[in-house]
Structure formats: structure tokens, C-alpha cells
Backbone:
């Protein structure tokens, strides 16, 4: 059952909260709504489920205007897990979950499908709390109870407002695994406002980036979560890479570019884990960093992928001379303001042949083992300040 949002405007107390929002959520898809605080994410979800009447535009569920449906009819199509997990009355957990069956009760007030309540509680891990007063639970436990209530509602469309906000890491993953499975195995259309960009990228098919009440971008996580988009929507500088464990996009927040290395282009030669501390310092300082050659799967390779640095890799035990990787590395070096070579990597066969006298070279590490061909030797914790003047460093040896 698709959910289509077209030209949606929402004003609250005379303030425009949403402006010309468009979105489409198909069966079997999990769509994440991301954006900074106050962007309008919660308002969008409340307009989607009919709680807020828009000033313009439509929300259609299976082709019907959700705002024209009765409360019971809308609830049979759309279930919602709110951000606020507070419950004011002393109901038992089972009673709260049973409330999800209210849209399905007959006019005589009975619902014959009680097994769906049991399944919902088991699926969300709250069955052991069935007889407990819901007000005695922690905020995270109550959040899971409200998810169970929404599952018991058995609606084909599910809306979740920050479903992991009150949960520990273990239950964040469990909750999103449940939500992902609802889309995959039950073909539900799911929309979730998610604060954590890494979790959103890992679990969602598509992301809708909302900023200042408008859709700033929408699409697959890898196409949407770019440094430029995140800077524009969140006013934050980030590195975007790939999580080596999940293969999903990962977003690493960085400080604003205030160091001497900001906007300097540096190529870092790697090997094993020698380049990792250098890359981390330079990326955090705002330098534009490329890496290579590194061995596929080693620490330097994974670090470069995680922070989104262009990286040239080779298979283990590969000789560097006359390889495609060597050519790619020479091109990266030629385009850089300078090269940083960890002392441990300088001894790799073939590394010296990748360098050119036209690009200044820093050896990074201790004096012991430092190559004579480097222009300057610096300690790792001084590499950022050294890179700041790298383009002006003369090539005259250590």
C-alpha cells in the first residue's frame, strides 16, 4: 500500500513548518527521513498519519486522502510509533499492546485475533513484561512496547518517529532489524525519522533529507549522504566512507576547517597500519587526502574507505613496479601539493620509484629509518602544521 505525499505545506501558529514537500513510499521499502533538529521531520510524519491537516497538498494512502478517512479507517492503514514514549495511565504492557487492535474491533467491542498481540510482543522483546505496569518500565522499554502496539495494529503502512532515540545500542539494532524485516518479509511501506545517519544508511532503501521544512535531497543513501549535501542540510563538515563491517555508507563528523592544513591536497603512502594515524589527523584538519598504495583489507585500506579518501590498493604480495596501482598513485601524487610517507612505509619495495622531485615529500615518524630522499622529517603529531606549508617546501633532502 503506497503512501504518496504531494506538494505538502504545513503551517502551525502562523509559521510555515513544511514547504512543498514531495515523497513516495512504496510497498516493501523502508524510507528514512533525516535532517537537523527542527527541520520538520516529526511534523511530516504527523501530516502523513492525518494528525495534522496541511494548508496545501495531499497525503494519499492507496490513492485515498488520509485526511478524508475516518480515524478507524486511517488507523487500519497507517500505524505510528511516536517519539514520546510516555504513558500516563497504569495499564499493563499487554493492555497497551492490545490498544493496537482497537481499529479492528467490532461494534460490540471484541477482537478475535488475540494471537497478533502475542506475536507483536514476542517480536519486540517485551513479552516478559506483559503483566507489568507500563509506567514501571524504562524509557527504552516503553519505546519497544509502543512498537509492539503498532505491530499489533497490523497496518500496511508504518511510521516511526525516532524509534531508536531512547534505546541502547543492542536494542537499536534489534528494533531496526524488526523494522527492516517488516518491509522485506511483509511488504509493508515503512517511514522512519532517524537521527543517526549511519543507522539510516545501513537499514534504509532510500533517504529523504529535510532541512528548513523542505526536501533538500532524496534517493539511495550512497547518492544522498555526500559531504556537500550534509554540509548544506546540517551545516556540518563530514567525511563519508564505507563501513568495512556492513558495506554501508558511514558518516564521520569533522571539526570545521581552521588548521593550517585546511584545503591542502596531500597524498599519503601507506602500508599495514602506518598511514592510519597520519590520514586521521590530516582528514580531521581539513586536508584533501588521497591514499595509496595500500594492501587490500589492511588497516590503512579500511581507514581510507571509512573516511572516504580516494584510495589505491593492491593485492597482498604484489610488486608495485609497473602496475596499474603504481600508475594511479603517481597520478595522485602529481595532483597533490605534497606527499606524506610514514617511515615504516618508506621501506616498502618500489615506494621510492613512485615519488617525484616536483612534489615535496614529508617523512613522518622517528629519525631511525627515515629515508634520505625525503625533503623533511616530522613527528606524526606535527604532521598537520607541517602540511600547512608543504606546497612551499623546497626539495633539498632531509
Residues:
Amino acid at each position: 500500500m503506497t503512501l504518496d505525499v504531494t506538494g505538502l505545506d504545513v503551517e502551525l501558529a502562523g509559521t510555515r513548518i513544511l514547504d512543498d514537500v514531495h515523497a513516495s513510499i512504496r510497498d516493501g521499502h523502508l524510507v528514512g527521513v533525516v535532517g537537523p533538529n527542527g527541520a520538520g521531520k516529526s511534523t511530516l510524519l504527523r501530516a502523513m498519519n492525518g494528525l495534522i491537516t496541511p494548508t496545501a497538498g495531499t497525503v494519499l494512502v492507496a490513492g485515498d486522502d488520509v485526511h478524508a478517512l475516518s480515524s478507524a479507517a486511517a488507523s487500519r492503514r497507517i500505524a505510528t510509533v511516536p517519539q514520546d514514549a510516555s504513558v500516563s495511565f497504569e495499564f499493563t504492557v499487554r493492555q497497551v499492546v492490545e490498544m493496537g487492535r482497537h481499529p479492528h474491533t467490532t461494534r460490540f467491542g471484541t477482537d478475535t485475533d488475540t494471537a497478533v498481540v502475542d506475536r507483536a510482543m514476542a517480536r519486540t522483546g517485551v513479552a516478559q513484561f506483559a503483566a507489568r505496569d507500563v509506567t514501571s518500565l524504562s524509557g527504552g522499554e516503553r519505546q519497544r512496547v509502543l512498537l509492539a502496539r503498532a505491530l499489533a495494529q497490523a497496518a500496511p503502512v508504518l511510521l516511526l518517529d525516532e524509534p531508536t532515540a531512547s534505546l541502547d545500542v543492542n536494542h537499536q539494532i534489534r528494533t531496526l532489524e524488526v523494522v527492516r524485516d517488516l518491509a522485506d518479509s511483509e511488504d509493508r511501506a515503512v517511514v522512519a525519522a532517524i537521527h543517526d545517519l549511519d543507522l539510516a544508511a545501513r537499514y534504509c532503501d532510500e533517504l529523504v533529507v529535510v532541512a528548513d521544512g523542505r526536501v533538500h535531497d532524496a534517493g539511495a543513501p550512497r547518492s544522498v549522504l555526500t559531504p556537500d549535501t550534509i554540509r548544506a542540510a546540517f551545516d556540518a563538515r563530514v567525511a563519508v566512507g564505507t563501513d568495512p563491517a556492513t558495506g554501508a555508507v558511514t558518516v564521520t563528523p569533522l571539526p570545521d576547517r581552521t588548521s593550517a592544513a585546511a584545503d591542502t591536497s596531500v597524498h599519503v603512502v601507506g602500508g599495514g597500519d602506518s598511514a592510519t594515524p597520519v590520514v586521521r589527523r590530516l582528514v580531521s584538519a581539513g586536508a584533501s587526502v588521497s591514499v595509496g598504495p595500500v594492501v587490500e583489507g589492511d588497516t590503512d585500506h579500511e581507514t581510507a574507505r571509512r573516511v572516504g579518501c580516494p584510495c589505491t590498493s593492491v593485492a597482498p604480495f604484489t610488486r608495485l613496479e609497473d602496475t596499474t596501482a603504481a600508475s594511479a598513485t603517481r597520478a595522485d601524487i602529481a595532483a597533490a601539493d605534497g606527499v606524506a610517507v610514514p617511515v615504516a612505509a618508506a621501506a616498502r619495495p618500489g615506494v621510492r620509484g613512485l615519488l617525484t622531485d616536483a612534489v615535496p615529500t614529508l617523512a613522518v615518524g622517528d629519525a631511525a629509518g627515515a629515508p634520505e630522499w625525503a625533503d623533511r622529517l616530522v613527528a606524526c603529531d606535527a604532521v598537520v602544521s607541517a602540511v600547512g606549508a608543504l606546497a612551499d617546501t623546497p626539495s633539498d633532502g632531509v
In short: The chain has a mean pLDDT of 91.
